[in-house]
Design brief:
By secondary structure, the chain is mostly helical. It has twelve helices and no strands. Helix 1 packs antiparallel against helix 7 and helix 4 packs across helix 5.
């Protein structure tokens, strides 16, 4: 951590902040445009909200005029995270996540909480030990694994999703830009190096790169500006396949979302709401079905 008066921006820091901001805007726009939050993990979004709440405690005592750029972005990240959760829980249908996914998310949060003081003790020693720094360290560790429930959701189900490549690129590149930012700060005028942010930033970037490889290495069926990634595809990724191994005896989720059963019955009689095998909409898969016949 470094005081605002000694902090200098660089192009990678600005690109990282912009990428992060754009990723939030893309997700919010996609949910509204599709009138659905299918394929988006509520667990991941809740964990992101926890990350920002624990990281930005300095909002309570830092003057906005000290670093206005940071102040505005922090408020945006907090507000957008809770807005996405509101959309997913109160406004639009979302994909049902299994109990084991919620347990996994709880383990991520609990593990990060336990690891935070230990990691801080290793890198900062006792003389830098305070509550704010512990919470900041917790947020860095937790953010590095926030995406795992999202990957598990896409592995366990074959539902249409509003997540697209633009969201993945902007969200994944944000941490990559931050890694370059830390290098610039270390070798530049500041001579400042933050090993905790660097280490867990690399972990987070590796997870996104692994998932991006899976996402782009297959032929995707495009549905409502989104795509489908199934469990066989995720097994192509090295990190994802080891962190969320597939159980062949595990049945795949058959219910595409938490919308009412009545809407599915209505879709089965006609219209855009019909669903074919593996969560692919009948309207999108119609030609393939006719060819198979």
């Amino acid at each position: 951590m470094i005081s605002p008066q000694h902090y200098h921006f660089n192009v990678f820091r600005i690109l990282g902040d912009l990428s992060h901001t754009v990723s939030k805007c893309i997700l919010i726009w996609a949910i509204h445009a599709n009138r659905s939050a299918e394929g988006v993990s509520l667990i991941t979004q809740v964990l992101y909200a926890v990350v920002f709440c624990t990281r930005y405690l300095d909002l309570f005592w830092t003057k906005p005029s000290a670093m206005p750029w940071n102040f505005v972005l922090k408020l945006f990240y907090l507000g957008s995270s809770f807005y996405i959760i509101l959309l997913m829980t109160r406004v639009y249908a979302r994909t049902r996540e299994r109990e084991k996914a919620w347990k996994f998310g709880s383990f991520c949060l609990a593990g990060s909480t336990v690891a935070a003081p230990l990691v801080l003790l290793i890198f900062k020693k006792w003389h830098h030990y305070d509550f704010h720094l512990v919470m900041w360290t917790l947020s860095e560790i937790l953010e590095s694994v926030c995406v795992l429930p999202q990957l598990i959701l896409l592995r366990q189900t074959s539902v249409p999703t509003v997540i697209d490549s633009f969201y993945l690129v902007t969200l994944g590149s944000y941490r990559a830009f931050y890694i370059f930012n830390w290098f610039v700060r270390y070798f530049g005028a500041e001579q400042h190096f933050e090993p905790i942010a660097m280490i867990f930033g690399i972990v987070q970037t590796a997870l996104y790169l692994d998932f991006a490889w899976v996402y782009w290495s297959r032929q995707r069926v495009k549905l409502r500006n989104g795509g489908v990634v199934d469990s066989n595809d995720l097994n192509k990724g090295w990190l994802v396949s080891h962190l969320a191994p597939r159980n062949d005896t595990e049945e795949e989720e058959q219910v595409p979302s938490l919308s009412e059963e009545g809407s599915r019955e209505q879709g089965s009689t006609g219209g855009a709401g019909k669903w074919g095998p593996r969560g692919i909409s009948v309207s999108a898969d119609e030609d393939l079905t006719l060819e198979a016949q």
